[in-house]
Amino acid sequence: MKARDEEPLFGRRPVLELLRAASRRIDEVAIVAHGRGPALQDVLTLARSRGVKVSFRTRDQLTAMAGTPYHQGVVARVAAAAYADLGSLLAAGAQRAEPAFLLALDRVQDPRNLGAVLRSAEATGAHGVILPKHESVGLTPGAAKSATGAQEWLGVARVANLVQALEALKKEGIWIIGTTPRGGASPWAADLRLPVCLVLGGEEGGLRSLVARTCDLLLTLPMKGKLDSLNVAAVAAVLCYEVVRQRGA
Fold it and tell me: 105, 185, 214, 240: least buried by Cβ within 10 Å?
């Protein structure tokens, strides 16, 4: 029986990054018994070197553990992902002697989008991601699969009131930079070398009006084709790399 604080983590890269980071308790790594390739051998070798219990299962058994057939031949039983607090996200930037670089998501509900945002945030050196507790997806196994292990290296805070959290960041000298499909400033003209928190809206309606009003500046990505908007994960990737470009990396 699964422990109340336990969840499955599946997929080759998510499990490999979990083992590398050693960021939470790992109760078992279950690997497909037959047909393992080099990637799964790396998981097996690292799990054994970490002293983690390893078992071998059929694909059907792994599907039952993961709740999906898309497990890539490996499922780990791990402690449920823990959320950080805002203070620890701010401390991450201070420890690196870097201006704050945070993301906040307003009502992003698709775990694949959340995972992709986490992946871009970690890849570009962001110090953390902020999620609201309500009307927003959290660190689910599906989000972890899409994040390909990014959540093991990146702090994710969950707050009861996103507007209040953003106001608290303002008091710390952080500029709140939101996004809007039209009418905003060009990202290339904004000064993202300053301490910033990028705020991105959900799949349906974008930023809520109160969240948008809390922002110091709204940005709009130029659209040259027939479509009038991009997926939230794509917007996050573009803006994160613009932060990297402006900061000289």
Answer: 185
